[in-house]
Please model this.
Amino acid sequence: MKTTIGAFDAKVKTVEVTFTEGKITHTRPVNACLDEDGGYDIEATKARVAEVASGVAAKIAAGVITAQPAPTKKPTA
Model:
């Protein structure tokens, strides 16, 4: 599984992560890890994302998370 970690959002203390497995792409926020001074800990956050990726992979394997259908074009009047 490929993961892409977005920028840290200090307001909500999360990072937006995109998980990609084959043709399935799933994006969700993941709680960021902070160091003892309250600063963003990128290495600990990478480990946290890896843990979340394991759960996402299990959900993909179980069919809970699937590829999103292509948007359909609505006819114009």
In short: Residues 2-62 form one domain. The longest helix spans residues 42-62. The chain has one helix and three strands. The two ends are 43 Å apart (CA to CA).
